[in-house]
């Protein structure tokens, strides 16, 4: 949810609650003042009627608004104020009246005097107030929404500019500087902090890059020397079997360390996006070409290769990364396929799918693409092949999935 939507929702909720409360209060206040004013009017009418009877001796009778009749002496003289319903012959329905009644002695006689006036029914008053309040509320909300939207967009524009620039940020481009400016203190401070942060990220990235390259180079050099010395030792005459086995074991481990170093360096370079060169790659041809590299392994395990490769599948990517992706996926399928199984390779313009038969994974599927996570702990593989595949997909914004169904391990790359 956007911030503007959240603030508008809060405004609407608070305003709606306030208007409902205000409408209820307004109803009771209007009702009270209206009845109070009506009471004063009716009392004033009683004074005028009493004065008229004293002067003229005639009794006005204008039903239902005025009702005067003579009553026995010593009747109760207290005044009463009530609301009463009286049938109206013109409207053919009962109408609510406000009535004040009392006993007055006029010219030595006692009279019952009742003065009435129509009273606004509470339902009608409530309906009018609800319509007026609702109309004002809707009008206010519409105005508030557009004013708040326009004002917020203007205020938050520097933030969105900064966000757009950050999306284009790359750690391998030194000298990054935000061009968006704002008169607001908070956004100005945010830009300063982000500039310091990005500069720190670039600096750390450059340091890590140099360290990785230097460490790899420094490790490869002594490893090459050790391998050369071990090869020389293995050619010495008169070596005992045990000595030869120890030297050969040490030589194998130096090869594994050398391969591991190279693989980690490749993984670091991919993660740091050090393969920016892209071109149109014919994945169909590249896939057909790289499957030939595994012909000996396929024959050794008596595997059957089933290809469904659509021609002219072109992708815009780095050639070396596309090559690494295909080699690792095919190599993984061949290595973990059961003897005599069928490896299926499917390719079209939307996805690449490579499947091989095998038993269910002894590890969670979510761990399959993690670094150094191996299905077979005794394997010579460093467990980085699928980690490299995942980094290549992430870099190219491809989606990679693994599923196991019908005794088949399937790795699917959606372009």
In short:
By secondary structure, the protein is α+β, with helices and mostly antiparallel strands. It has three domains: 3-128, no CATH class; 185-271; 279-414, Histidine kinase-like ATPase, C-terminal domain (Heat Shock Protein 90, 2-Layer Sandwich), CATH 3.30.565.10.
Key traits:
8 helices, four-stranded antiparallel beta sheet, single chain, alpha+beta, 415 residues, Heat Shock Protein 90
Q: Can you characterise this structure?
A:
The chain has 415 residues and is an alpha+beta fold. It has 3 domains: 3-128, no CATH class; 185-271; 279-414, Histidine kinase-like ATPase, C-terminal domain (Heat Shock Protein 90, 2-Layer Sandwich). It is 54% helix and 19% strand. The chain contains 8 helices and 11 strands. The strands form 3 sheets. The chain has a 5-stranded mixed sheet. A hairpin with a 3-residue loop joins strand 8 (342-347) and strand 9. Helix 5 packs across helix 7 (319-336). It is rod-shaped. The model has no long low-confidence stretch (mean pLDDT 80).
């Amino acid at each position: 949810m956007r911030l503007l939507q959240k603030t508008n929702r809060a405004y609407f909720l608070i305003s709606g609650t306030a208007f409902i409360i205000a409408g209820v209060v307004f109803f009771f206040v209007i009702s009270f003042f209206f009845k109070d004013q009506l009471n004063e009017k009716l009392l004033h009418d009683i004074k005028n009627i009493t004065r008229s009877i004293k002067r003229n001796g005639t009794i006005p009778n204008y039903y239902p608004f005025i009702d005067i009749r003579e009553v026995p002496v010593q009747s109760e003289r207290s005044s009463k104020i009530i609301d009463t319903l009286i049938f109206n012959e013109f409207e053919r329905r009962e109408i609510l009246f406000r009535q004040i009644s009392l006993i007055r002695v006029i010219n030595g006689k006692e009279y019952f005097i009742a003065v009435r006036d129509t009273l606004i029914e509470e339902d009608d008053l409530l309906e009018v107030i609800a319509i007026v309040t609702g109309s004002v509320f809707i009008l206010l909300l519409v105005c508030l929404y557009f004013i708040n939207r326009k004002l917020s967009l203007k205020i938050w524009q520097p933030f969105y500019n900064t966000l757009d620039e950050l999306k284009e940020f790359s750690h391998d481009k030194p000298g990054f500087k935000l061009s968006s400016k704002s008169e607001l203190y908070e956004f100005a401070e945010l830009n300063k902090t982000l500039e310091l942060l990005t500069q720190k990220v670039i600096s750390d990235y450059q340091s890590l890059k140099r360290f990785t390259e230097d460490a790899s180079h420094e490790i490869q050099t002594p490893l090459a020397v050790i391998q050369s010395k071990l090869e020389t030792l293995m050619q010495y005459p008169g070596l005992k079997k045990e000595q030869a086995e120890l030297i050969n074991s040490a030589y194998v481990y130096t090869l594994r360390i050398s391969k591991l170093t190279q693989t980690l360096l490749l993984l670091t370079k991919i993660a740091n996006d050090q393969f920016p060169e892209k071109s149109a790659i014919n994945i169909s041809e590249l896939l057909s070409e790289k499957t030939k590299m595994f012909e000996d392994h396929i024959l050794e395990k008596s595997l059957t290769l089933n290809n469904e490769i659509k021609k002219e599948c072109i992708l815009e990517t780095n050639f070396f990364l596309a090559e690494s992706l295909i080699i690792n996926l095919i190599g993984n399928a061949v290595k973990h396929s059961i003897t005599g199984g069928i490896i299926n390779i499917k390719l079209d313009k939307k996805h690449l799918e490579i499947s091989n038969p095998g038993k269910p994974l002894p590890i969670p599927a979510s761990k399959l693409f993690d670094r150094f996570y191996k299905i077979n702990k005794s394997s010579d593989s460093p467990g980085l092949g699928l980690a490299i595949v995942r980094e290549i997909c992430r870099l190219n914004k491809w989606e990679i999935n693994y599923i196991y169904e019908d005794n088949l391990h399937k790795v699917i790359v959606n372009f």
